[in-house]
Amino acid sequence: MADHEDHEDFKPSMTPGYKPGAQKTAAELANLDAEDESLARWKASLGIVPGASGGDTSGPKVTVLTLELHSPTLPSGKKISFELSDTARLADTKKHPIAIKEDVGTFVCITFKVNHSIISGVRYIQVVKRAGVKVDKLEQMLGSYGPHPQGQAYSKDFDTDHSPSGMIARSGTYNVKSRVVDDDGNVYADFEWFFKLAKEWE
């Protein structure tokens, strides 16, 4: 049952009538309709310019690098961030969950690189459970991006959420499963982390 629930939780929402177009590399897109100036400006804003490298298209289109948790109430100098390559750090949150202050606004930010092609229909899905019961779900699109000309990473902030408050909310650990997936079901990141609620940031 749990596997079925997880599958349904992470199934991307589909827009009725929407059909993804054929995939093209950055180089192919850069040379498409090259005489259209407005289209050229739009493609340039995505990092798709003539001479763009098609790159190695055998790997994933997207590599997710970090996840950060932000809040305007965080003490100066305090940062909550994970390198997704640091699986030991993520796993450690099960024994030592991150402390999040109750009753404050928080939001997730991810950094990622686009390796080849142009991405669209890629979204971040986050499901929060407590004692095995789903208490929150976030699903948001990343937007449209192409490979950055200098190979730099992009960052994306998601909507602000409000942390629960009260003794009951503070009495357990919350399990978060995060996934970056596209409309075709290709998964670019899939990771798990844990947090607890506290009266103050720790």
From TrEMBL:
Belongs to the Rho GDI family. Gene3D superfamilies: Coagulation Factor XIII, subunit A, domain 1. GO terms for biological process: Rho protein signal transduction. Pfam families: Rho_GDI (PF02115). InterPro entries: Ig_E-set, Rho_GDI, RhoGDI_dom_sf. It comes from Mycena chlorophos (Agaric fungus). One of its GO terms (molecular function) is Rho GDP-dissociation inhibitor activity. Its main location: cytoplasm. Residues 1-24 are annotated as: Disordered. It comes from the Eukaryota. Keywords: Cytoplasm, GTPase activation. GO terms for cellular component: cytosol; membrane. The lineage of its organism: Eukaryota, Fungi, Dikarya, Basidiomycota, Agaricomycotina. It is found in: Cytoplasm. This is Rho GDP-dissociation inhibitor. Residues 1-11 have a biased composition (Basic and acidic residues).
